DNA sequence: CGTTAAATGTCGTCC
DNA sequence: GGACGACGTTTAACG
């Protein structure tokens, strides 16, 4: 890596910044720009944001992110498959594009305070996560009595015409049970999902088969309770 | 702003970087760090990611973002309400914390290639977006015949015990109609939502009132079609 | 502060 | 490549 590569730029001229970003792009490096810019997006929706100080980040995979001062979400972003770096009317202009869906993100800088870049290594640093719905499923399969005494888990991801049921089993009296799992507080969608699965199982297992539905989650909202009650299903509180 | 404030750092020592980040934090500036680090999160779940080259960004509102080389989403993030900047065992350590919910994000740098910062102005640069569900609603209210000839829109966001119906109206023969809008391709949840509203309206308007349900979206998935058919509802294709 | 529904959601997985 | 459901979803609107 040359000395130039290792340097960042302070208050660069647009042409200098353009060369820097192009170089970063070619090296598949991270690149950050801090400065005043305005932003236009056109694709799934259309948006425009006026001039303000922002953080613009270009990632090795051509993801372009535009962050304003507030909030964890970027104001605009694009997982692009092409990037143009130009100087227009004396301003640095980044144009990121993507096909399928057709999208375009344009960032125009009025001024640039800082530019930095770093070539990324090839290390695959996957994130290990625990405490998810998959963990809750493992818990239930390992100890089905957590759902209710006498419950036997017979299958995970059991297929139905309405989609896979998280856990399928039978209660102590032999009745079929569909279990829908949520790792976080459950909303009405979870209850609707459970109803679809139970209906499908009733048809699948044979006419008027007796199928119970149980929603398992740390908690659920009141409206979810009402949907469950309306459809004759139950709720069991369980942490992942 | 002093000369030091305007400078970025190239390959700084941990203590130097720590002072730089603390200063940025105090000035409520954007700050970016490019370097090799590992990351640990504990809160809603627990996660850990081993050493790799990453982009770490600190925003004026104390949002901490950790980006790996791929993908538009940060690998880890935290909308923090406190940040500690320390040097431990010769490494820069950022510890962002939040209460309610209790969360912690720790970033430990093995090496730092670049650090940059920029104080943010106070400009409130809101993003103007069009092509959303709100736009689709305006379209339907302005020209209800887009839903079907003779349709009259009587209310937007009409309240029901199951929540507000996007558009409520009557068809050419006077039958009540609930319209559920989606700006993008609709999935099964949209059909379930519609069913809940129609059921609530039937009870609300009087026993066995005749209420039609129409899902309006650019398109919908096959399973969504089946849910609509099962519940006797309809689909109308319309762009926002 | 809790609940609810939208989102340029994004991401993995399976077909 | 589409469909489907999870996600540390985040965010805005409303009571």
TrEMBL record, chains A, B:
What is the main EC category here? hydrolase
Q: CDD domains annotated for this entry?
A: NucS-like
Q: What is this protein called?
A: Endonuclease NucS
Show where the Endonuclease NucS N-terminal PH-like domain sits. 29-121
GO function term, MF aspect, one: DNA binding
Places the protein is found: Cytoplasm
**What residue intervals traverse the membrane?**
none
Task: Show the InterPro entries listed in the entry.
Answer: Endonuclease_NucS (IPR002793), NucS_C (IPR048301), NucS_N (IPR048302), NucS_N_sf (IPR049173), tRNA_endonuc-like_dom_sf (IPR011856)
- The Endonuclease NucS C-terminal domain sits at 133-240
List the Pfam families.
Answer: NucS_C, NucS_N
Principal subcellular localization: cytoplasm
- Keywords, in A-Z order: Cytoplasm, DNA-binding, Endonuclease, Hydrolase, Nuclease
Family membership: Belongs to the NucS endonuclease family.
Question: According to the UniProt entry, what is the EC number of this protein?
Answer: 3.1.-.-
- Tell me the function of this protein: Cleaves both 3' and 5' ssDNA extremities of branched DNA structures.
High-level lineage: Archaea, Methanobacteriati, Methanobacteriota, Stenosarchaea group, Halobacteria
Q: Which GO terms describe its cellular component?
A: cytoplasm
């Amino acid at each position: 890596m040359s000395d130039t590569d290792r340097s960042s730029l302070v208050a660069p001229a647009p042409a200098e910044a353009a060369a820097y970003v192009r170089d970063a792009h070619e090296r598949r490096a991270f690149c950050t720009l801090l400065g005043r810019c305005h932003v236009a997006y056109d694709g799934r929706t259309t948006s425009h944001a006026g001039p303000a100080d922002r953080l613009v980040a270009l990632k090795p995979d051509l993801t372009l992110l535009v962050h304003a001062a507030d909030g964890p979400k970027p104001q605009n972003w694009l997982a692009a498959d092409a990037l143009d770096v130009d100087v227009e009317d004396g301003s640095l202009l980044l144009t990121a594009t993507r096909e399928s869906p057709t999208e375009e993100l344009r960032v125009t800088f009025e001024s640039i305070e800082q530019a930095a870049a770093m070539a990324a290594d090839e290390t695959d640093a996957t994130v290990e996560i625990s405490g998810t719905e998959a963990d809750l499923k493992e818990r239930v399969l390992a100890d089905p009595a957590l759902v209710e005494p006498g419950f036997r888990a017979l299958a995970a991801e059991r297929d139905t015409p309405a989609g896979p049921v998280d856990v399928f089993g039978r209660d102590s009296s032999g009745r079929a049970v569909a279990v829908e799992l949520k790792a976080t507080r459950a909303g009405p969608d979870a209850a609707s999902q459970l109803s679809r699965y139970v209906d499908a199982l009733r048809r699948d297992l044979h006419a008027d088969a007796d199928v119970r539905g149980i929603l398992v989650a740390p908690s659920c909202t009141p409206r979810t309770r009402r949907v469950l009650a309306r459809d004759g299903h139950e709720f069991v509180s369980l942490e992942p």
